[in-house]
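Allow me, if you will, to draw on your knowledge of protein folds for a short while. I have a record of one protein: its chain in single-letter code and its fold written as discrete structure tokens. I remain grateful for any guidance, and I place the record below:
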Amino acid sequence: MSSNKKYQILINILLVILTLFMVLPILLLFMSSITEESTLIAKGYSFFPKKFSVEGYAYILKNKATILSAYGYTIGITAVGTVVSVLVTMLMAFPLSIRKLPGRSIFSFYVLFTMLFSGGIVPSYIMWTSTFHIKNTLLAYLLPGLLMNAMNIILMRTFYMNSIPESLYEAAEIDGAGYLTIFWKIVIPLGKPIMVTIAMFTGLGYWNDWVNGLYYINDKKLYTIQVLLNNMIENIRALQTSAGAGAGSVGQIPAVSVRMAIAFVALAPILAIYPFLQKYFASGIMMGAVKG
């Protein structure tokens, strides 16, 4: 057997092992969510539980209308936030990729500076609530911390610098195209891999976000799925505390399996979407991470 063949077999084995490390925890999460509560407590987590139960999902579905409403808000916010965020990131990254841009180093430093320093939680909260008045509005999910990310700008800028030659811009300028036309006709079509990559990062951020809901949302009608599920977990803890103080039957709530079910419910849509975007994600992150 040639050395190249042995090397390929070794790489394949390593990839299989890495895949198992990523897939098995998700499988264990799902199996735990359909395991009977008493079995989880007595035997722990298992890929092959002795007793199955859907009590965790049944508990979640008791508030079916609220769950559907929260999913609707989450899907809408994720879709709108991702599109707007990618567009804003592109509009910032494209000028920074042009080496002859006046003041390019100053703007690049400004972007990098925001990765290292921030105003802090309290000043940010005061600014968003007192100046922009986003409390108990859907803008509270869209704006703070997620609309623009410095790391995403750097990835996209580096992709443009390495993948789109400036001579292409110059040729377009000779033909009479302005920068808006160049952006629309050249940058967007050639930048699809990095666009999908940044969209994945941003979409995951919006989908998994519960901190903004914790800080800025008090109206239960505006809960997203993550905020709602986190609220369910807090309610279960409160009920367990009451049960420990002698509140009777509330102690029968399947707390552990509910937590597992909640985690899987929040994760399932991402698992369904990711395979369709994986090829763009891989190429985009590789090209965007190469130093220009």
Observations:
- The CA atoms of residues 82 and 199 lie 6 Å apart.
- Residues 255-288 form the longest helix (34 residues).
